[in-house]
Design goal:
Structural class: mainly beta
Strand order of the largest sheet: 1-2
Helix content: under 10%
Number of helices: 1
Length: 84
């Protein structure tokens, strides 16, 4: 029976992995505008295209033309867009 070598023999010689340099590239966000086409045919692009009704804890956003409710996730995106 051969003696077992000490554990330090099994350690890798290079304890630290090779360091990799990462260069960052500035990427401009695309001009994405959220729109929603209502059932009446109106295109909702800005906050002015919707009417806010305060009912309960959360406001309900509706189309300005036909007062159809706009989904809350869509309304949240649209209300932050700048018309200019």
């Amino acid at each position: 029976m051969t003696p077992t070598p000490p554990w330090h023999c099994f350690r890798p010689r290079n304890r630290h992995p090779r360091r990799v340099t990462v260069t960052s590239v500035a990427v401009e966000p695309p001009d994405v505008t959220s729109t929603h086409t209502c059932t009446c045919g109106a295109t909702l692009r800005y906050r002015q295209d919707m009417v806010r009704e305060q009912s309960g804890v959360y406001p309900t956003w509706k189309c300005k033309d036909c007062l159809t409710p706009v989904p809350s996730t869509v309304a949240e995106r649209i209300k932050h867009q700048d018309p200019s």
